[in-house]
Every structure is written in C-alpha cells, then in structure tokens.
Amino acid sequence: MTQPVGAGSKCGCKVGDVASQLGLTDIDEELVGRWSGDHPEQMSVRELADYFNTRVLKKLFEESDTGFMKSQAGPFYDILSQDPDDEESPQSARRDREELIEDLEESGFDVDKITTDYFVSYQSIYTHLTKCLEVESPSAKNQSENSLANDQDTVRRITAKAAKIGETLMNRNVEDSDDVSGRLEISASVDIRCDECGYKKSLVSFLEDGGCYCSDVHVEDKNSENGGSGDAKVRKESDGGNTVADGVGEQALPTSVEDK
After folding, report:
1. Same domain, 125 and 20
2. CB-hemisphere CA count at 13 Å for 150?
3. Prediction pTM value
C-alpha cells in the first residue's frame, strides 16, 4: 500500500531528510506522479534525481539574500552536475563549472556541502519511492497489468472452447430430435459467487475487480435494515442499482442450453 506523500514524514532516508529540512512540502507527490505517469511529464529515476536536486537549488536560492534567482537553478545544476574528472568534457565546460563554483562560494554558498549533503543520487530516489513511499515501479505495474490481461484471455479461451465442445455434443445428440422445434444456441461461462457478500460475476470481471465485495466499504449487514433479524449481506450494484443478496444466484460454473 502506498504511503501518504508529503515532506516531513521522517522516513529516514536521505531524500526524506533533505525534503523535510528544506520544507519541500510537495516533493513526494511530485516524485510519485512523475514516476508513475500520473503527471503529464513522466520521468525515470535518473531524471527525478536531477529534478529533485534542481528543486533543492531553487529552494536554497529562494531562501538566500544573494541575488540568485530560482530560474537560474536549472542551468546552474546542469553545470554543477558535470563530472570535473571527465577528461572528455570540453575545457570550456570545466572552466564554466569552476567559475560558477567560485561565484557561489563568494556569495556564501558551500558548494561542497550542497553537492554532498543535499544533492541525491538516482539510487536514493528509487529507494525513497519503493521503500519509504512503497510505490510500485512502472515496469512492475505494467507486468501486473499484462499478467491480468493474459489471465482474462485464458478464461475467455477456455469458456469459448467449452462452448464449442458443448455445441458439438449437443448437435450429436439432439440435432435430429423431434422434441426440439426451435434453434438451439449454447453458451458457457465461469462465474464467481461469494456466499458472504453476495458477489456474483464472471471470473473475468472478478479478476478485474481484484476480488469480491467482502473488503468493500459498501458491503452492509442487512441487520441494520431489518431491525436485527437475519444475517445476510446486501450490496447495491453500481451499474444497475439491483440488490444482490446472499442466497441469490445460479450455481458456479454454469453451462446452459437455451431454447429460443
């Protein structure tokens, strides 16, 4: 279960500590939304680390009297995040980094402290999301959704095959019978029914719902409606408004032959 998002939750990791210390009150919500895809701009954990560190720099600029503007945080972070030991980096880029560090330190910023104590790695972001906030990774979520779709397809194939077999048996035994005057059609389904909450749907719907109504807040004890007599459970169906009560419904795994 995903934990409530928001700074100051004292999760104990570096991301949480920095966010709490700087008062980045919406950072958890932003990280979760951008990672899960709920935000229009979806990001990887590496991109989220850059996003977080840029937010840190913006906050430090905002709280200082140095004259640095929040709009400068993005390009400044890009410069600071460059590897000073990268020999393939252009000499001009290394010079820009050195000059920026000098300007920041002259304004009272401890650049080494910022990059060491405040900036976080993408591994720290991933740990914060998955361990502290208990957010499922997008890849795991997609795998889960794909697994559900595959299971539902399996059910559909099985029921279609059962109907086909039933049709063959029906045709073999009753096609020429004088007792049948109408056109016969056969259907097969796999249904789930819960005696406790009255849930009754197809297995495909059951898988999509993630279970029956027993864990649903809308399941009510019928005693509250009839003054204490009886112990059946009732629930209003959201799609039709019909009451589904304990003791009502067909047997599970029905196969029917209809005379139309």
Report:
1. yes
2. 6
3. 0.54
